[in-house]
Design brief:
This protein is mainly α and about 80 residues long. It contains 3 helices and no strands. The longest helix has 25 residues. The protein is elongated and about 40 Å long.
């Protein structure tokens, strides 16, 4: 199994954040501004990661990916009709 490079992880995570922001922006309501704030914070943290310490950078990417997954779950739940 090939290891994903730090640059590839950075690029992929940035694309996932952009996609989540686009999904949020396409919504007609503004009830979920906190999700937008969370996505912005994740993006800001992504931009601060340096690749000087490879293990530390991978750990930070892991943490950001978990935070993004949680934000995407909230975004998915917000898009479901209420019963």
């Amino acid at each position: 199994m090939a290891t994903t490079s730090l640059a590839e992880r950075q690029k992929a995570l940035g694309a996932r954040i952009a996609a989540a922001r686009a999904r949020l922006g396409a919504r007609d309501d503004f009830e979920h501004d906190d999700i937008g704030d969370l996505l912005e914070a994740i993006n800001d943290d992504l931009e601060e990661i340096t690749h000087h310490d490879e293990a530390a950078a991978h750990a930070r990417y892991d943490a950001l990916e978990a935070r993004l997954a949680a934000a995407q779950s909230r975004l998915d739940a917000a898009g479901r009709p209420q019963r």
